[in-house]
Design a protein that fits this description.
- The protein is an alpha/beta fold and 291 residues long.
- The chain has a domain of 196 residues: Vaccinia Virus protein VP39 (Rossmann fold), CATH 3.40.50.150.
- Helices cover 32% and strands 15% of the residues.
- Helix 5 links the parallel strand 2 and strand 3.
- The protein is globular, with a radius of gyration of 24 Å.
- The N and C termini lie far apart (90 Å).
Length: 291
């Protein structure tokens, strides 16, 4: 029995030695520090930013290779986010949500009724309900599929929130806006509508809001092929974040509007006081004020 144990120990040592030798002989590419667009805001939100990854212990070498530029960039609306070497891929738009709520608080500290059109599970609305404890809110979706999930997420706000099914495609002309709404928030309108319909929907928002009402929109834009390519390469150095659902079938062949088209849509709708308050690559947060 003793001899069997000795043989087993020798065999295990041999395996470990082989594995360590192979590891030492493998070339390890150094990685740039992991960054995330949300890191800049965690301090203001009461948390600490995620720690940057330590540089890999390896001889000096070129930075981690970037993906090759995708051909036909003019036809590509959103460049796919790389899934390696950095993980995880996830849905995290907390920074623009918090920025939207904070900027509104600086300009309009006591909103009465905040309506989120196209709420999904209530992530966007949640930031505003937390910021404005005296305000009422409305979760709005065209179907009931995420209503229970939203009620779990927003449950801490109790009866301050109403749950309304309506306004498919973010179309605010379809009766989901209450008469006393003074703040409208929405996201990913361009995933459902082309620019002509976006302009019309923004006009409905302007019509429904009272004087001194506010309209807050988070959405994607299309840039020139050259800038789309630059964004696609730059994303390689950041933790990727996926934002929003895929485009609806009836608008998949139409690119997201450009930044200029979006700003023109707000002004055509009647919002002459509008600005970009946050932008990360091709994701933009707009805030518009009805004067």
């Amino acid at each position: 029995m003793k001899s069997v144990r000795i043989i087993a120990a020798v065999f295990t040592c041999a395996l470990l030695t082989t594995a360590l030798s192979a590891q030492e002989g493998r070339k390890v590419e150094p990685q740039p520090a992991r960054l995330n667009a949300s890191d800049a805001g965690w301090g203001q939100m009461g948390g600490a930013p995620p720690a940057a990854a330590a540089p890999a212990a390896a001889p000096a070498a070129a930075a981690a290779p970037r993906p090759a530029a995708a051909p036909g960039m003019a036809q590509v609306n959103l460049i796919p986010y790389p899934t390696a070497p950095y993980q995880p891929v996830g849905y995290s738009m907390e920074l623009p949500y918090q920025i939207g709520a904070q900027v509104l608080a600086e300009a309009y500290p006591s909103p009465k009724h905040i309506v989120d059109v196209g709420s999904y599970q209530g992530q966007f609305l949640q930031a505003f309900m937390a910021k404005f404890p005296a305000a009422r809110g409305q979760w709005t979706e065209p179907v009931t599929g995420n209503e229970n999930n939203a009620k779990r997420k927003l449950g801490r706000f109790g009866d301050r929130i109403d749950y309304v099914v309506g306004c498919p495609g973010r179309d605010m002309a379809m009766g989901c806006l209450p008469d006393d709404v003074d703040v409208i928030i929405t996201a990913w309108v361009s995933h459902h509508q082309p620019i002509k319909e976006i302009t019309r929907i923004y006009g409905v928002a302007h019509e429904k809001l009272p004087a001194n009402g506010w309209f807050i929109v988070l959405d994607h834009i299309t840039s020139s092929p050259l800038w789309e390519n630059r964004y696609g390469q730059a994303r390689w150095y950041f933790d990727p974040e996926t934002e929003g659902n895929p485009m609806e079938k009836d608008v998949r062949g139409v690119p997201h509007p450009t930044l200029d088209q979006e700003l023109a849509a707000f002004k055509t709708a009647g919002f002459t006081d509008v600005d970009v308050v946050w932008k990360s690559f091709d994701t933009v947060l707009y805030i518009a004020h009805k004067q």
